Amino acid sequence: MTSLKYxxxxxxxxxxxxxxxxxILLFLIMRxxxxxxxxxxxxxxxxxxxxxxxxxxxxxxxxxxxxxxxxLDDPLFPDQFIRYMISLFTLNFGYSFLTRKxxxxxxxxxxxxTLALNIPALILITLIGLFLxxxxxxxxxxxxxxxxxxxxxxxxxxxxxxxxxxxxxxxAYLPKYLWDTTIFPLPPYTPPRxxxxxxxxxxxxxxxxxITLEYLWVLSLPIISIVVAGFGSWAYYIRQLTVSELxxxxxxxxxxxxxxxxxxxxxxVFINVVPPVLTSLAFxxxxxxxxxxxxxxxxxxxxxxxxxxxxxxxxDYPAIQAIIFIYAVLISISLYVADLIxxxxxxxxxxx
Amino acid sequence: MSFIxxxxxxxxxxxxxxxxxxxxxxxxxxxRKIGVFGLIVMILFVGLALSAPVxxxxxxxxxxxxxxxxxxxxxxxxxxxxxxxxxxxxxxxxDIGEWKVESLGSLKEYAEVSxxxxxxxxxxxxxxxxxxxxNFTFMAExxxxxxxxxxxxxxxxxxxxxxNFYEYDYIANDGLEAKLTMYISKVGKKQxxxxxxxxxxxxxxxxxxLTIYSTNVEVLQLNNLTTFDxxxxxxxxxxxxxxxxxxxxxxxxxxxxxxxxKMEVYLQPINLEAKGMVYGLLGTDYLGRDVWSQxxxxxxxxxxxxxxxAIIVLFIAIPLGMIAGYKGGVTDRLLISIFDIxxxxxxxxxxxxxxxxLRRPSLFAxxxxxxxxxxxxxxxxxxxxxxxxRERPFVxxxxxxxxxxxxxxxRYILPQMAPLLVYYITVxxxxxxxxxxxxxxxxxxxxxxxxxxxxxxxxxxxxxxxKGAWWWVMPPIAGIILLCMAFxxxxxxxxxxxxxxxxxx
Lengths: 352, 505
Known about the structure:
heterodimer, A: 2 domains, 76% helix, B: alpha+beta, MetI-like fold, Jelly Rolls, 2 domains, five-stranded antiparallel beta sheet, 11 strands, 21% strand
């Protein structure tokens, strides 16, 4: 078992390195590069948004005292850098420059919306993609395979945001302005607040949000566009994997043994297709939490992606740091979990 | 039969082999419908991009107000009766030879009117050496045929210069004053005033011509209209003959004895522009810019992004991937972890962050950014191929001869991978195009050019959908989808040909 332990520790180090590198890169892009390359102080950018143009020069004393109180007059390295790393890794994200609320609060406000959008979307994408890929691989050479593959290729090319724009035009604006009927809502697609069903069990109290029809109605267009734009790559990938597995020698052996096609697919091919699919899933899961910038912008959806984009637009550094850091942590964790599962499923991986 | 061929024989056979395999490849490629479709679409767009200066003469960014904003395409008038006779953007050149000229007034013998055919201008010289008082009026009429329905806006441009050598003095009440009036009317209908002004001294509209917009408030006031009225609609009522009249009156109030009163007037009518309500192949956007030009120049940006990113990616990924695969050991470990980290980074937020930091990113900065974040997949693939290729006997036999590592990599391993690379290039290109479109959609594109993503963004911001301007929204969307589809189709077809395992059975 030492090899297993060794493999686990090595993977863990790899994943932690990813988080550390991402945070360092963020520090470089947001704090160091603006000063070193452009000679601009990011703090002044922040301040300029708050003050009148003339006041920047006039209030040099105030700026200095501000900087002192924020600790921005310390050298970038090591003082500020260490403080930055420590606060990120202790999950102390600070508060937003713009709204003066804690970043965690801002995120908590938007996270349910993003989850409500992306969890169903990811489940649907995976199921549809798996089914179509698997089905078309088992029907190779038939017309149905050609049909499924051409639809998948189309969906593979189409990005979600482009499809979103098309759907908004076709299903929201056109009915509204041609026949003055509303089929789907016009942007912004902000999900309504859900009524909460309170449960009081005496020793514990909690509320369950009740999903209303209106809620689903608002979510439907974004989910449709994400799913339709997303399943194609899965279907194509899984079909490719399955077909290439079918070309392996052990399939020939199984056929020689007299197993029928169905059994070969179920018993032999499936196990070999699972690991790459798991890895792809591990790559997709963090996106569920951080959302897509482009899709949420197109729909004006009140979620994490739009929040990140607003933060980037308005130089709201704490928010940017927090969201990208969370993304890096999540992707490391999910890749590590995928690795764990793979090591349990496939003993060969340990040896690598 | 000898198996040892002469050098020329080897060259001949090799050439023959290459020709044969190329022919075979083309034959197999042409059998696949989607491959042929992709190729045709790609050639179409490449042709569009290369011939952009010829087929799209308007600047996509700065040529504003070519026609009315949100003007539908010109071919609308062919298919719909509602649009049948809508005005197209027309410039009435006002050739000086076609003007009907008339001199009136009591002092007309002192004035000399000449036509400068080269400059297309009237030159009026007034010189009164006597002490006679009175006036002189110069009238010029230009009549033109206007074939369209009601117009929304017209613009009249004229250069003029008045040099008064004896300015009117309102204390002594002597000297010269010039009164310039311009009218426009349908022949036989009510006249509308375009310009009415009296000059006591010198005036020059030579460098910046006098430009009269029909929507100008002062022009409307001259005609007792409010800003809710449309002058052009009142003037241009259907097809017919229309007339522009220029009237220059020189009032002479006498002067000191012995001092001659002299005035030189230079009138150069430039044109009368009727703003089209239909325009070009794809209409106009919210600033009256030509959408067709934007589309064509946008195809240039998209293709440039796709191809340049692919080239940069190749230049980074091939050496690094091959070194990682060939050398192994610590080098491999290090490179692989670099690949991993860049692959896992959240690409779009970081690209957006850097473009925000750069303030006004040029297109090449965006291309470089996209390339930096999209080479790792290919590098990993190349590493895997190199790993399997370096164990082949032919590599070992070359090693025995004493070839250097670089020589083996680039001379023997790279050609083996070339067919596989083609597929990956055609997959990288649409990814890059879509990323660029996404960046421009968010409004961070290069502001000096127009790309398809920027067109979509402007169409959204400019309420194209509310105005029903599908000709503005749909072309960029269709362009992005078609171009990406073309590249993906080509890639898949090539993959099926060179990667026989996946060939349909």
